Amino acid sequence: GWCPVSPTGAQTTQLLVKPAWRPAVLWDRVTLTCQGLGTTGATTWYKDEQRWWPMGPDIFRVTKSGTYTCDKPGSGLSPAMRVLNDWLVLQVPARMLLEGDTMTLRCRV
């Protein structure tokens, strides 16, 4: 898989979402996975910028809307992932896009 590298050369923590669309929508049965250098089981989860699940699992199914981040000791805090419960959502692929790439948008109701 693809692992981004910070300017200092250390791997950073990534938050992966399935299905792979952003923003994620709760009614898609969203799963979040925290990847980084830290040990398995040493993941700290944050919901809406509040510490929510210290020493949580690396992967879990989301049951509440909000903004999620995770922290792995040694690789830091992940970028944020929004999970919505709205009735109308415009989504983009949850992957790195480069200028000139073709992108498919999804309008979900």
TrEMBL record:
<dbReference type="GO" id="GO:0004888">
    <property type="term" value="F:transmembrane signaling receptor activity"/>
</dbReference>
<dbReference type="GO" id="GO:0009897">
    <property type="term" value="C:external side of plasma membrane"/>
</dbReference>
<keyword id="KW-1015">Disulfide bond</keyword>
<dbReference type="InterPro" id="IPR013783">
    <property type="entry name" value="Ig-like_fold"/>
</dbReference>
<dbReference type="InterPro" id="IPR050488">
    <property type="entry name" value="Ig_Fc_receptor"/>
</dbReference>
<dbReference type="InterPro" id="IPR036179">
    <property type="entry name" value="Ig-like_dom_sf"/>
</dbReference>
<feature type="domain" description="Ig-like">
    <location>
        <begin position="28"/>
        <end position="70"/>
    </location>
</feature>
<keyword id="KW-0732">Signal</keyword>
<dbReference type="GO" id="GO:0007166">
    <property type="term" value="P:cell surface receptor signaling pathway"/>
</dbReference>
<protein>
    <submittedName>
        <fullName>FCGR3 protein</fullName>
    </submittedName>
</protein>
<dbReference type="InterPro" id="IPR007110">
    <property type="entry name" value="Ig-like_dom"/>
</dbReference>
<dbReference type="GO" id="GO:0006955">
    <property type="term" value="P:immune response"/>
</dbReference>
